[in-house]
Design a protein that fits this description.
Chain lengths: 931, 186
């Protein structure tokens, strides 16, 4: 929503009555669309919700959120409760919306009519229908309260909730009060109501019911036993009152024909009414939490009127934008002077002609620049050039000029108290006590303002600081080089002064100038006033308030609607009711602000979060996994005085603690690393004030599971264990390989050694020699056998395992050679299962065993030495009879031992070797051919 | 439109004096004049009809009246009537204007006398309903009930748009006069 320039609507009406409260217009847009707004509500955070033909909108004055989009359904009533709203549609749907999501509580044809009203409570919704009485919804169930239950009529025009939870119902036949769904009291014509046809209803802050009727205007009824309704005087002439809202002492009514009308019933002398907007139909009125009134008229514009500020640019033909002096008296009157004369007016403005011109002629060359009302009713006027004069209550005028002892004829300020009159002039101060004129502070030169602080005389001077004349005659100055324009007392009676660039200066502690860098001290300063305990400095660049009790400075320029004004010095007055009046270029301004107008900055509300685009609430903080860490936070602060002027400071503690400033109402963090953060945000209106409290929310981005500390520790332990185990296994394997390598080498060595055993060679060559001589053909065969034998040895030497079949073949070759030597003394008997042939063993094992057998036994003589080899699928067995030699042969001792070691590396099954009866048996387990 | 539909259902019930099987004191519209005047600077348009239908429940003080647009007579020219029906009222789509509601004041409609009362109800013209409270004069006589009222209808309330070129000829607010006499049946 772009908000239009401050729209101070000025209506020059034919009656010569022109006055208006501070009004601001807000333009509500949904993209390019101009929603037509028909109803309003405000939630607890201060955001405004609006029902329009496109759905339900929520706005903070800058940003518009469409909270619910309608599919052709029309919203017939809207109400807020806490930070939720509820609404009903012409399809009979009752919907609740909490700012994140909307859910339909129920749908019922009873509420499908077009004239419905609604109020919401903690656990229930109360719906007023036209024709079916009042419906109470609780947990999705409806209860009907109609004429059978005592309701005066089934045609309900409006509802309002009392502070105690009772519901006031406006019907076609009077008012009724519901307590827990039971009709308790009926207020109709027989009971004293001015009209049965009650069209609208509101509950004021004080708990009183205000009812707008069809033909009797507005009446007030305190809903207590025996209380009589009081009709607001003259409101009968309004016509049918379609909407009524009470705020403070103001009653706002909207009628079909006249737009919003405000009636101020605070003043003893009656009411005044003002049609100042000229607007047509008002569809809904809303009183907001600051006491301002909103209305909508079916367009995209929302209007907000703040009745705390009344602007009167002209009245009864008088141009009030050129007032030169202003004061108030104790009798509800405001006195003001223009170039034309001095006038008196009551402190309210009505259609009655209440301006009185004081019968005194003013020379335009010597205008009245200051006015003061004395406690005795005398009005004192100071002129620029013609001294001062006093108008007694009886009209008698007494003149004082320099000839009468006045220090100067140019009087800048007059103050009148019970201790006398103080006149500040261009040449010091003159005090008039009784009939006596006393001059003081001649050395002060130009004195813009002067007051008595007890016995001390305080003077705001031009370039000589604040000059203080003590009771004992001592004169001294504070901040002696500076210029001060205006003096005022705070609620504790301490004097303060302001001037251009000075800030708020406590006279008794002039070292301190507070807020000197702020408006209005950066421009022209006009006057200093006191409002609700706060000092308020007015100037051309703005208005700033200072609360001496709390030390709070607040820029109230927008809240007071006083931007870019011009005014005479000290044209300011406080009336008997505590309202502050200022005469400026916008006319006469009456200020009756509430404390909320002095809020230095609005409180920030966090609206929602979008995590990777998905909307979620922020209550209780945000917790999100590491892979959903694109975070957008939305926040706002309702600052209706000037939404566009609002800035936000934020920081994300834990991410970069720097405070950033933005005008945006959202902040995004594209990829937050896992961790705990604290998001803090606050609003800034015009200047620093870094002491503002933060609005906070905890944000936690969860680490991925493998980054959770205890998981990480566990993983570390497991990893270290695995590495250690792997290292150990590698170590073991390496050692094993080393050993294997060693064994293999040793085995090969054994085999070779046995083959190049000199005995073996010697015997073989002897046999060869014999054969060469006797049987040369066999010799050739023998050499071939030897050759085959050695080739086989070379071939299998490096292999880890060979098949049993090959091993048996090798054994045959070997044995044939041995048989050359031993002849028929030895024999080899081999029995092998077919299954055994496909299995494997370490090469040359059998040869080595047979060789051992031949080596260790007596082979020749007696029966042939038979070596039996039996192979089954599991094992191969070498068996030979034990016929030990007398002298054991020299043995390397490695034969059997090295076989055992090599097999140990290949199979778990052991090698069995030993005597079995008369035989020596070695059983070698067979292994798989392929490892 | 929902109120219109329900109203059209209600009227026959009222007219026949039977509602929910209960015999009620219902008087039927016997004679009626409904007229309107549009007083624009350049042209005065007026027409009236006596073909309205309606009923009044003397117990409940509720009523319903149905005014047929096409039966409006008395225009200055046939072309004016054609414009009225085709351009403004779209009578083919919304043939009736209706007003149904009840009398706020607790007057006895069986005892002879004259009362100033307010009739509150839903005024449906051109399919668009507007809540209206209309002050009426009710004259109760031995033969029946006579209701007279004069009120103004802003045409914009009922979605009637007046083109700029004829703004001098058609008034933004039309004055309506009604004079209805309800009499018991038979």
């Amino acid at each position: 929503m772009r908000q239009t320039a401050l729209a101070l609507l000025l209506l020059i009406s034919g009656s010569g009555l022109a006055q208006y409260p501070l009004v601001r217009s807000f333009e509500v847009r949904d993209g390019q669309r101009r929603p037509r707004i028909t109803a309003l509500a405000q939630d607890q955070r201060g955001l405004i919700w609006a029902a329009a033909e496109i759905g339900v909108l929520r706005t903070d004055g800058e940003v518009v959120d469409v909270m619910w989009r309608t599919q052709g359904e029309r919203i017939t009533a809207l109400a807020a409760h806490g930070n939720e709203v509820v609404f009903v549609t012409d399809q009979g749907r009752l919907v609740r919306c909490d700012g994140l999501a909307c859910d339909t509580l129920l749908q019922d044809s009873l509420i499908a009519s077009s004239q419905v009203s609604i109020v919401a409570a903690d656990d229930a919704r109360v719906i007023g229908t036209y024709g079916h009485g009042v419906l109470m919804e609780r947990n999705g169930a409806l209860r009907v309260i109609d004429t059978r239950a005592g309701l005066p009529d089934d045609h309900v025009n409006g509802l309002a909730a009392l502070p105690d939870g009772r519901i006031a119902v406006a019907t076609d036949q009077g008012l009724a009060l519901l307590e827990d769904g039971v009709v308790r009291v009926v207020m109709d014509e027989p009971a004293g109501a001015p009209d049965n046809l009650v069209l609208s209803i509101d509950v004021a802050e004080d708990g009183a019911i205000w009812a707008g009727t069809h033909r009797a205007g507005v009446f007030r009824w305190k809903p207590e036993a025996n209380a009589r309704p009081q009709t607001l005087a003259s409101s009968w002439s309004l016509g049918p009152v379609d909407n009524v809202r009470a705020t403070g002492t103001m009653i706002w009514a909207s009628t079909r024909d006249a737009g919003p009308v405000v009636i101020d019933q605070s003043l003893e002398n009656g009411t005044y009414r003002q049609d100042w907007t000229g607007r047509a139909e008002v569809l809904d009125l809303l009183r907001d939490s600051d006491g301002a009134i909103w209305w909508c008229d079916g367009s995209d514009m929302l209007q907000r009127a703040d009745p705390a500020f009344l602007f009167v640019p002209e009245h009864e033909g008088l141009d009030l934008r050129n007032i030169t002096a202003l004061c108030s008296d104790a009798r509800q009157s405001i006195w003001f002077a223009t170039a034309e004369g001095i006038y008196r007016h009551v402190t309210w403005f009505s259609e009655e002609r209440t301006v009185t011109r004081v019968p005194v002629d003013i020379d335009p060359r010597t205008p009245v620049v200051s006015l003061a009302a004395g406690p005795d009713g005398t009005i004192w006027a100071g002129t620029f050039g013609a001294g001062a004069f006093a108008i007694a209550p009886d009209g008698r005028i007494t003149s004082y000029t320099s000839k009468d002892g006045l220090s100067n004829d140019n009087v800048l300020s007059i103050r009148s108290t019970s201790t006398g009159v103080v006149l500040a002039t261009l040449a010091g101060v003159t005090r008039i006590v009784g009939q006596e004129l006393k001059q003081a502070g001649a050395e002060a030169g130009f004195v813009f303002d002067a007051v008595m602080d007890g016995e001390r005389l305080l003077m705001a001077t031009d370039g000589k600081g604040i000059v203080i004349a003590e009771a004992n005659g001592d004169v001294h100055a504070e901040r002696a080089q500076e210029t001060f324009y205006s003096l005022a007392f705070d609620a504790e009676g301490r004097p303060w002064s302001v001037g251009p660039g000075t800030g708020f200066c406590p006279v008794n502690d002039s070292a301190r100038g507070i807020g000197a860098e702020l408006a209005p001290f950066d421009g022209e300063v006009f006057s200093l006033g006191q409002l609700r305990g706060r000092l308020v400095a007015f100037g051309s660049t703005g208005v700033t308030a200072y609360d001496p009790a709390s030390g709070t400075l607040s820029d109230v320029t927008s809240a007071f609607g006083l931007r870019d004004i011009a005014a005479e010095l000290n044209a300011i007055a406080t009336d008997h009711a505590g309202a502050l009046w200022l005469a400026c270029s916008k006319g006469l301004v009456r200020m009756r602000p509430r404390d909320s107008h002095f809020k230095p900055r609005p409180v920030v509300a966090l609206l929602d979060a979008r995590i990777n685009g998905a909307v979620q609430g922020v209550a209780g903080g945000i917790v999100t996994p590491y892979d959903r860490n694109a975070l957008l936070l939305r926040f706002t602060a309702p600052y209706w005085a000037d939404p566009a002027a609002l800035r936000f400071q934020y920081r994300l503690k834990g991410y970069g603690d720097r405070i950033e400033e933005t005008r945006d109402r959202q902040v995004s963090f594209a990829a937050l690393p896992p961790g705990d953060y604290l998001f803090q945000v606050r609003a800034v209106v015009s200047h620093g004030g870094a002491d503002a409290p933060w609005t906070e929310i905890q944000v936690t981005v969860m680490p991925p599971w493998w980054r959770i500390p205890w998981v990480m520790i566990l993983l570390g332990v497991v990893l270290i264990g695995m590495v250690a185990m792997a290292l150990r296994a590698r170590d073991r394997r390496a050692r094993y390989r080393d050993r294997m390598e060693q064994e293999k080498v040793r085995f090969q060595l054994d085999a070779l050694r046995s083959q190049v055993d000199p005995h073996f060679l010697f015997n073989s060559f002897n046999a060869l020699v014999e054969l060469i001589e006797s049987e040369p053909a066999k010799a050739v065969e023998h050499v071939e056998q030897l050759s085959t034998f050695f080739r086989n040895i070379v071939q299998v030497r490096d292999r880890e395992r060979i098949s049993v079949k090959e091993e048996l073949h090798l054994l045959d070759t070997y044995f044939a050679l041995e048989q050359r030597r031993f002849g028929s003394a030895i024999a080899l008997r081999v029995e092998a299962d077919a299954a055994a042939l496909e299995r494997a063993m370490v090469p040359l094992t059998l040869q080595m065993l047979v060789e051992n057998a031949l080596k260790h036994n007596v082979v020749t003589g007696g029966a042939p030495f038979v070596i039996e080899v039996r192979a089954s699928a599991e094992a191969i067995e070498v068996r030979n009879p034990v016929r030990p030699r007398a002298t054991p042969p020299r043995s390397t001792g490695f034969g059997l031992e090295s076989i055992v070691k090599r097999y140990a590396a290949l199979t778990e099954r052991p090698i069995q070797a030993g005597k079995e009866g008369a035989d020596f048996v070695v059983r070698i387990p067979l292994i798989e051919l392929i490892a | 439109m929902a109120p219109m539909r329900s109203l059209l259902l209600v009227i026959p019930l009222l007219v026949h004096g039977i509602a929910f099987g209960q015999s009620r004191d219902i008087v039927r519209l016997a004679r009626s004049t409904v007229s309107f005047v549009s007083e624009a600077p350049l042209e005065v348009i007026k027409a009236s009809t006596d073909r309205s239908k309606g009923a009044l429940d003397r117990d409940e003080r509720s009523f319903a009246i149905q005014v047929p647009m096409v039966e409006m007579q008395g225009f200055n020219a046939p072309l004016q009537r054609e414009h009225f029906n085709e351009n403004y009222m779209v009578s083919a789509q919304w043939p009736y204007a209706t007003f149904s509601g009840r009398i706020i004041e607790a007057v006895d409609l069986r005892v002879a006398g004259t009362h100033q009362v307010r009739a509150k109800g839903s005024l449906v013209i051109r399919g668009q309903a507007q809540e209206r409270v209309i002050p009426c004069t009710i004259e109760v006589t031995a033969s029946g009930v006579r209701v007279r009222a004069t009120f103004e209808v802003p045409v914009a309330d009922h979605g009637i748009r007046i083109p700029r070129v004829v703004q001098q000829k058609v008034a933004a607010t039309v004055k309506v006069d009604i004079d209805l006499t309800f009499e018991p049946q038979g």
